[in-house]
Amino acid sequence: MQYVIAFVTGGMICALSQILMEKTKMLPGRIMVLLVCLGAILGFVGIYEPFSKWAQAGANVPLLGFGNNLWKGVKEMVDKKGFIGIFLGGFKNCAAGLSAALVFSYIASLLCQPKMKKH
Question: pLDDT for 65-90, tens place per residue?
């Protein structure tokens, strides 16, 4: 049942994002930023943690999870180091995921030889 909940939750997040792209003039990049910010805000308010425990990967894999992960890192570092923690926390918490994304996307670009889109 956990797989079904995760699949449906992640699918609904993606479906809502797709609806935003098709029904508004928002660009995909802005929708992605909106999802990251929404994840951070939900973490700040205290809603994200129970939602994450219920939906598991369905909540943690999309960009909402990335925003919440940034929020948790910032909160932890602010508690430890004060004001400077605002700048350190997000990097500390997300460094491994961001590094992996950069490395694997670079490898994919070498293997697939992407071409620039012409206008």
Answer: 888 888 999 999 999 999 988 888 88
Fill in the amino acid letter for 74: V
Distance of CA 38 to the CA centre of its chain: 9
Q: Give the end-to-end CA distance of the chain in Å, rounded to a whole number.
A: 46
Which residue stretches of 1-119 are H helix?
A: 2-23, 28-45, 48-55, 57-60, 63-81, 85-112
Give pTM, 2 decimals.
0.75
For the record, the structure tokens of 82 come out as: 């004060």
Whole-angstrom distance, CA of residue 2 vs CA of residue 88? 34
Report how far residue 66's alpha carbon sits from residue 27's, in angstroms, rounded to the nearest whole number: 19
> What pLDDT does 117 receive?
66
